[in-house]
């Protein structure tokens, strides 16, 4: 059986590895070249680390990545700290991409097509057809892993506009030693800043905000930083990597997992928000379920896949409600401060 993966972000790469493990011959198309970069908080949850380890992908914890053992939240005078049952890792996207593509290059059954943008595809009764350089290629199944603004989602009429306020994101790296072994989250009025240690000498700051709360113009970076005076004190601005980059809005998702012979995975299926830090691990879990079951896809496989996304949706809704409502958030902080184990438990639920 011959299959195609469209999109070589982390989820596309992991999907290709799972398909290869099942014995399929895989063609992997990516519009850019590896390693890929992307705006992301760069925190990989313990369940994501476990999946990569099982696929033979490990990270050195010095210049390549940095473990974190919990999350600490800061909201004006209030703070709240929670521990994770296992360590997560901060990893720069380009390093993550390089590590997975190195593993893929060891596999003779995965053919890589970088610098190849796929736009023309058709879903036939007994095959999926892709047009590459004027030539038609036929596959038994295909997997759309082409990210948040998935082209395949549009062309296969699988696009759903999300209800509710839309969100935006941005990131910037600084060459300075991390000051905490936790991911730090700072809250301001409808904006959050996330500090993720990504190596022994580098931290990443990611921002997430409600689209209506901030104008996106030339002054966006300054406006975002102005919202976090406490965090600004800790940052060596002269050590900025100069890679401030925005992303969003996160306004659409897919209606269905499967359209004919095409499956939607990772952000191409659904990305609601980075607030829970689980886009990558969630995408990997979905890839595993689909790659192991696509040829005999049934209601049970669909239920297993959707359970992960319902859980994600619940956690994101809870976190966004707290982000939107300052008084409710502060009440929540005070309440969990009295029962720290309860907060640890809540954090462990986020990464089931
Ligand atoms: C601000 C922010 C913070 C986040 N923080 C975290 C976090 O801390 N932890 C976490 O786990 N997740 C986080 N996420 C989410 C995470 O970044 C995504 O869930 C993850 O990148 C999804 O991977 P993907 O492979 O599905 O998509 P992508 O990484 O977007 O990859 C898609 C790939 O498809 C390629 N492509 C697109 N169109 C085509 C085409 N037509 N033909 C061929 N190739 C194509 C692109 O070039 C790209 O390489 C965050 C997201 C944001 C925005």
Written description of the protein model:
With about 350 residues, the protein is of the alpha/beta class. The chain has a domain at about 1-35 and about 95-165 and about 250-350: FAD/NAD(P)-binding domain (3-Layer(bba) Sandwich), CATH 3.50.50. It is about 35% helix and about 30% strand. It is built from ten helices and 19 strands. It has helices at about 10-20, 45-55, 95-105, 150-155, 220-225, 230, 280-295, 300-325, 325-340, 340-350, and strands at about 1-5, 25-30, 45, 65-75, 80-90, 110-115, 120-125, 130, 135-140, 140-145, 160, 165-175, 185-190, 190-200, 200-210, 245, 250-255, 260, 260-265. An eight-stranded mixed beta sheet has the order 3-5-4-13-14-15-12-16. Strand 1 (about 1-5), helix 1 and strand 2 form a beta-alpha-beta unit. Flavin-adenine dinucleotide (FAD) binds near residues 9, 31, 208 and 277.
Q: Nutshell version of this structure?
A:
It is built from ten helices and 19 strands. The chain is α/β, with parallel strands linked by helices and 352 residues long. An eight-stranded mixed beta sheet has the order 3-5-4-13-14-15-12-16. Strands 6-2-1-10-19-18 form a six-stranded mixed beta sheet, with helices on one face. The protein has a three-stranded antiparallel beta sheet with strand order 7-8-9, with no helix packed on it.
């Amino acid at each position: 059986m011959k299959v195609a993966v469209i999109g070589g972000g982390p989820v596309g790469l992991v999907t290709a590895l799972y398909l290869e493990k099942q014995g399929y011959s895989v063609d992997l198309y990516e519009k850019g070249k590896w390693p890929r970069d992307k705006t992301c908080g760069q925190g990989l949850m313990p369940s994501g680390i476990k999946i990569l380890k099982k696929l033979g992908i490990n990270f050195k914890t010095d210049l390549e990545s940095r473990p974190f053992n919990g999350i600490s939240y800061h909201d004006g005078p209030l703070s709240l700290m929670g521990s994770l049952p296992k360590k997560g890792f901060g990893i720069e996207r380009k390093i993550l991409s390089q590590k997975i593509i190195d593993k893929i290059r060891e596999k003779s059954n995965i053919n890589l097509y970088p610098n190849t943008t796929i736009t023309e595809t058709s879903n036939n009764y007994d095959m999926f057809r892709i047009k590459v350089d004027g030539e038609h290629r036929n596959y038994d199944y295909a997997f759309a892993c082409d990210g948040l603004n998935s082209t395949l989602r549009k062309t296969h009429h699988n696009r759903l506009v999300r209800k509710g306020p839309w969100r935006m994101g941005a990131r910037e790296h600084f060459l300075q030693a991390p000051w905490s072994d936790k991911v730090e989250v700072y809250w301001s009025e409808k904006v959050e800043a996330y500090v993720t240690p990504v190596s022994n000498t580098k931290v990443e700051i990611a921002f997430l905000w409600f689209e209506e709360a901030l104008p996106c113009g030339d002054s966006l970076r300054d406006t975002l930083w102005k919202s976090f005076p406490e965090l600004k004190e800790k940052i060596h601005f002269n050590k900025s990597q100069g890679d401030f980059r925005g992303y969003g809005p996160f306004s659409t998702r897919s209606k269905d997992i499967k359209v004919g012979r095409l499956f939607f995975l990772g952000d191409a299926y659904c990305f609601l928000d980075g607030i829970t830090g689980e886009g990558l691990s969630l995408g990997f879990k979905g890839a595993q379920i689909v790659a192991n079951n696509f040829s005999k896809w049934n209601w049970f496989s669909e239920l297993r896949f959707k359970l992960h996304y319902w859980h994600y949706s619940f956690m994101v809704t809870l976190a966004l409600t707290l982000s939107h409502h300052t008084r409710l958030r502060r009440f929540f902080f005070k309440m969990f401060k009295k029962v720290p184990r309860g907060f640890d438990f809540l954090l462990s639920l986020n990464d089931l």
